[in-house]
Amino acid sequence: MAQIPNVDNSPLNLAALRESSQKELINILKNVRGKKCLVIDPKLGGSLSLLIQTSLLKENGVELRHLSAEPVQTECSKVLYLVRPQLNLMKFISSHILNDVSKGLQKEYFVYFVPRRTVVCEKIFEDEKVRHLLTLGEYPLYIMPLDEDVLSCELDTAFRECLVDGDMSSLWHVAKAIHKLELSFGVIPNLRAKGCGSAKIIDILNSLEAEDPVNAADMGIPEINTLILIDREDAVIGSNTKAILESTQQVFGISHFSEGKISEVVERQPWLGYDHFEGATIHGKGRGLGGNAEAKEQWLWIDISPNVIVMVEQLVTCGMMIDFTMPIAEENLLSE
Questions:
Q1: How far apart are CA 202 and CA 285, in angstroms?
Q2: Is-contact 303 238, C-beta < 8 A?
Q3: Lower Cβ count inside 10 Å, N or C end of the chain?
Q4: For residue 70, what are the CA distances in angstroms to 97, 98, 110, 176, 320?
Q5: Up-side HSE of residue 305: CA atoms within 13 Å toward CB?
Q6: Measured over all CA atoms, what is the biggest interatomic distance in the chain, rounded to whole angstroms?
Q7: At the top level of its lineage, which domain of life is listed (predicted)?
């Protein structure tokens, strides 16, 4: 099982962000009283292994299983599914329940969607005639720390969904993740966007702020000064992270840039030139900060597609890279 990373030296308080997500999961488990079987979507296994220890799950009466098409073998009378809102997974769950019903087994079933439930998934349960047997909920895990300089949204299919399927829900997910960061670190005063997807994310972000405003007076000075979103559809140029960061440094004059962080990435990936970014138009929008006009000099960089990469540049110290789609090994939580 993967070791939970140490984020004590992060430029932002990522430990508090992780602890918040951990507490939310524990509260879900506590709401299902007694011993329960936790059936985890295999794609979530790696993420959760970096968030919470298996021993802590077992302390809360959890028996662990990984979701598959095969029926869940457990003597627990309560079964809790933790899954992404994917239609094939809803079919698996429905099949499990119908199998138990056919055997005359009486159990309680709970389905918690990560990060949110969808109408389409609920419709599957209704069509399979198991909706009345289910208690549905959400586990809003939109973003999580992987290291002191890396965060992930686990949106590895965002590029295909947006450009091939025409499904823009991942843009809402990214906006929700940014809003969650703002709830922890203050409203980001300066927004910069290039590309249609980036502009949509900023629109969604402003809508979220209107629905669930961040109390700027209580937050104090924002810890992130500027948000830059870059949306590109070229899969080759999209991998050219180092060149884009260097171009941003030239255009925006980022000082005290951490070359060491970038050079570590260069050894693993080939890079192209960065002249494609020179002269690019960046659409900006300022956001009111009330009396907190002096935001800290820290940048949040998000590259929407095909590699949704976030760059936090703490100008007074060192660089920090955040990858929203970095694949995490599907660690088996049962290995401990």
A1: 9
A2: yes
A3: C
A4: 11, 12, 18, 34, 42
A5: 21
A6: 68
A7: Eukaryota
Asked if 278 and 247 count as a contact pair (C-beta separation under 8 A), the reply is yes
What the chain holds in terms of domains, given with CATH numbers, is 14-141 (3.40.50.2060), 149-323 (no CATH)
Residue 59: partners with Cβ closer than 8 Å, 6 or more residues away: none
pTM above 0.90, yes or no: no
Length of the chain: 336
pLDDT tens for the chain, residues 1 to 336 = 567 888 888 888 999 999 999 999 999 999 999 999 999 999 998 889 889 988 999 999 999 999 999 999 999 999 999 999 999 999 999 999 999 999 999 999 999 999 999 999 999 999 999 999 999 999 999 988 888 777 788 887 777 888 888 888 889 998 999 999 999 888 888 888 877 888 888 999 999 999 988 877 677 788 888 887 877 665 555 555 556 556 655 665 544 333 333 333 323 233 222 233 333 344 455 565 443 434 444 555 554 433 333 333 332 223 344 444 444 445 455 555
User: Cα separation of 284 and 298, whole Å?
Assistant: 17
- Residues 6 or more apart whose CB falls under 8 angstroms from that of 313 comprise 254, 257, 258, 298, 299, 301, 319, 320
Q: Give rounded-to-5 percent helix, strand, coil for the chain.
A: 40, 20, 40
Please name the amino acid found at residue 205: L
Cα dihedral 240, 245, 250, 256 sign: negative
Q: Is 243 exposed, middle or buried (0-12, 13-18, 19+ CB in 10 A)?
A: middle
